[in-house]
Amino acid sequence: SVAPPIRRNIMYERVRTFVRQHLRDSSLSIDIIASSLHCTKRYLHKVFREDGRSLHRFIQDSRLERCGQDLANPALADRSIMGIAVSWGFCSSSHFSRAFRQRFGVAPSLYRSLRMAGTTAAVVAPAVCRARFGSEISSRRPLGHIRPRNAPGPL
Length: 155
Hints:
The protein is mainly α and 155 residues long. Helices cover 60% and strands 4% of the residues. A two-stranded antiparallel ribbon has the order 1-2.
C-alpha cells in the first residue's frame, strides 16, 4: 500500500491535471471533480489545504493565468476581454474584472494594453496608473489597489 502523504501527492497531481483539462468548463466544481476522481469533497479539501490555497482558489488562479496569457497574445487582440474570460470559464464580467484586478493589480483592459506594448504589467502598472490617472497605490490595500488622489476619507 502507498503511504498517505504519497497518496495525497498523487491525488493532488491528478486533481491539477483534471482541472487543467476542464478549465474552460464554467460548471467545473468540487462536486464534479470529486465525482470524476472517485473521492470525497472532504478529501479534496484536505489535499489542497497543504498547498496553502483552496481548490476553488486554484481553479480561479488557473483561469486568471490563462486569461492573462490570452490578453497578452497579439493573435487574440481582436477578441473581446469578456470573450476571453468566458472562454476560460468565467460567467460574470464584474466577478472576472474584480478577480483579475486583485490578481494582476490592474484592470484587464490596462493589462492588455501594457502587454501589447511589450510591458510587464506587474512591474509598470503602479507607476503608469499614477502617471496616467493621477492615482496612488495605497499601502493598506493589496498591491495594485489605486484610488484617486483627491478621494475623500481613509482607505
